[in-house]
Amino acid sequence: MDNSNFKKPILMSEYKKIINTSTINCKSINNNNNNNNSLNRKRKRTDGRESPLTIESDDHNGSDKPRVKYGELVILGYNGFLPQGDRGRRRSKFVLYKRSQHNGVKRSKHYIVQSPETTHAILDTNQHSISYTLSRNQAVIVEYQEDDNTDMFQVGRSSEPPIDFVVMDTLPGDKKDSKVMQSTISRFACRILVERNGAHRARIFAAGFDSSRNIFLGEKATKWQDSIEMDGLTTNGVLIMHPKGKFYGGNAKCGLWRETTLNGDVFSLRESRSAQQKGQPIKEESNILQDGTLIDLCGATLLWRSAEGLQNSPTKRDLEKLVDEINAGRPQCPVGLNTLVIPRKVTLGEHVNQPYVYLNCGHVQGHHDWGQDKTGARKCPMCLELSPVVHLCMGIEPAFYVDSGQPTYAFNPCGHMATEKTVKYWANVDIPHGTNGFQAVCPFCATPLSGSPGYVKLIFQDNLD
Ligand SMILES: [Zn+2]
Ligand SMILES: [Zn+2]
């Protein structure tokens, strides 16, 4: 088989676009940092307020022909960009475009070998293969062949070339600059194959091919033979959750979390994340991604938005316009009587115009010391309820929105604003947490929601003069 085309770095043209865009982003962030560094190294919140304007230049690949977009993978917990800036294949979201040259693969033959290390398929770095180790001296090799109907995209922690989208562990809220000592995300976590023609269906599979185009499943990994085909699970697994109902529109409900196998079959969850025993096969469900499907890689959760679903969604510009509209209404602090401004860029220190929300009642006010007791709790001057307060800040990543409209709600406790339906949707979605638990989080910063219902309706006082 001639794989010379296969190995070509066909992504370069695509990456160049991405890199160009991100250079601009990095530059503005660096400038920002230079100004800040000398003043203080105080940890600053990394949210949409410092968002550099994204230049949406990636709709064309140098020619006038628009590129076919399959969809987007968006990491939960980032509000439009990584805190250190989007760079190359490390970014907060990855757009899947139709490749100029197909690079998908499909299963072909399989056979048993005594020593996989010396098997031709493993040694041949042009040959995609999966090696299932059965015992010290027995392995099943499954060879994969070129599939001219699909494009393949790989996701994982590795920065090696076969990984298109490099994903690191996501820490909630403002802990994002802390170091993760031990990552639970696999270096070659998963692969997604998208049909190049027709409906562009995207299927997800556990594990990705490494630089030698191999996947090794060790002796201890969970594996089995299903009639004639070998299949298996990766250590921490790849979990998927298809929402029940249409994601866009705001009427979908959280579905059940499942696990997908190396072959793309769907199973119920294991007892615990990396248990040896696989779950039950769920024949009636598939690994085809639908708009709003969540993919959990144990340490980071990705949201799949189909190109079709995104067509109805607000754009970043739409969301920025909404912020402008609220500011144009000149909301007022009922205590300081000053006009509040929802910022789009980071501001140093406490600004009188920075709006705060009282998380128990939703009253929006400026910075003041009224009603603050020794413990730091504050009594809201409007309703006299004791409540924690937090900066109000726009959720600016459009992919997380389930509808369009005014951002009249905010998540508790982080203060990210979004539409009512968006906030209510995410407050009811369970995200895998650690090895055995689930929790609802703010999609813009990954902070676990607190209290019930985990959000608050905002009450602005309009400027009366
Ligand atoms: Zn109040
Ligand atoms: Zn948040």
Please, could you describe this protein's structure?
Residues 30-39 have a biased composition (Low complexity). Pfam families: Pellino_FHA, Pellino_RING. Residues 326-465 form the Pellino RING domain. The protein is of the alpha+beta class and 465 residues long. The chain is 14% helix and 26% strand. The protein has a seven-stranded antiparallel sheet. Strands 3-5-4-10 form a four-stranded mixed sheet, with no helix packed on it. Residues 358, 361, 363, 380, 382-383, 385 line the site of one zinc ion (ZN). One zinc ion binds at residues 411, 414, 416, 442, 444-445, 447.
What portion of residues belong to β-strands?
Answer: 25-35%
The structure class reads alpha+beta
Unreliable segments (pLDDT under 50, ≥5 consecutive)?
A: 1-60
User: What's the average pLDDT?
Assistant: 84
User: What number of structural domains do the residues give?
Assistant: 2
Percent range for helical residues?
Answer: 10-25%
**Could you describe the largest sheet, including whether it forms a barrel?**
7 strands, antiparallel
**Distance N to C terminus:** 76 Å
Q: What are the distinct ligands in this entry?
A: zinc ion
Q: Count the E strands.
A: 28
Rg of Cα set? 24 Å
**What form results from the Cα inertia axes?**
elongated
* Strand neighbour order, sheet with most strands: 2-1-17-16-13-14-15
Count of alpha and pi helical runs: 6
Region (Disordered): 30-64
Pfam family, one: Pellino_FHA
Family: Belongs to the pellino family.
Domain Pellino FHA: 64-321
